[in-house]
Input
Amino acid sequence: MVIIIELTKRQEMILQIVKEEGPITGEQIAERLNLTRATLRPDLSILTMSGYLDARPRVGYFYAGRPEGNVISERLHKLKIQDYKALPIAVKESASVYDAIVTLFLEDVGTLYVVNQKGYLAGVVSRKDLLRASLGKKALEEIPVSIIMSRMPNIVTVSPDESLFEAAKKLIDFQIDSLPVVRPTEEDSRSLELLGRVTKTTIVKVFVELGQEPSV
Ligand code: ADP
Output
């Protein structure tokens, strides 16, 4: 979880003073701000616990730089879907549930996108959609995926210029595993061209990449 702390005006002022004059004691900061040490105590603990300030006994407060959490948050908002999307794996609306299950195994994915005759996004079938269909008595070769898929316009999508953070948020908010990366077509903005996929695996890979970066 990324915790972003919004600083109050007073906390910003404290940071400014410590940046310019640190090491500086709590008493001295209080004096500069015309406040009592007791009034400042909660602000100083927040700033120390969140990593903005370092406190050394009998020396005072130092500016420690921006806390790690905010750096991670900034990075995640800058990483674009465009640079991390994987290839979309799609089947036609007329494909059978049987074909979809085979494709799922061959392509080693958990979700398939379904496209209409023009190749535009028509829906999504997940593992559980296919399992549910398999519980029925009907032959799987005879059920078209278009009958069991979640369909447009209720498909949650992302565009290539959205951030990985926005994608991760959609995956969590809508409780789904996969997001089609799409671009509206020129002739009709409701028709979506399929450009790629972003899944929970995409997000986990980036998480690992960020974790492996050497700290500076
Ligand atoms: P699973 O069903 O295998 O756990 P999901 O959690 O991704 O996989 O899917 C849950 C349900 O949401 C399924 O019925 C699926 O069709 C639907 N679904 C999956 N992805 C999307 C999406 N991007 N937009 C709308 N519905 C989706």
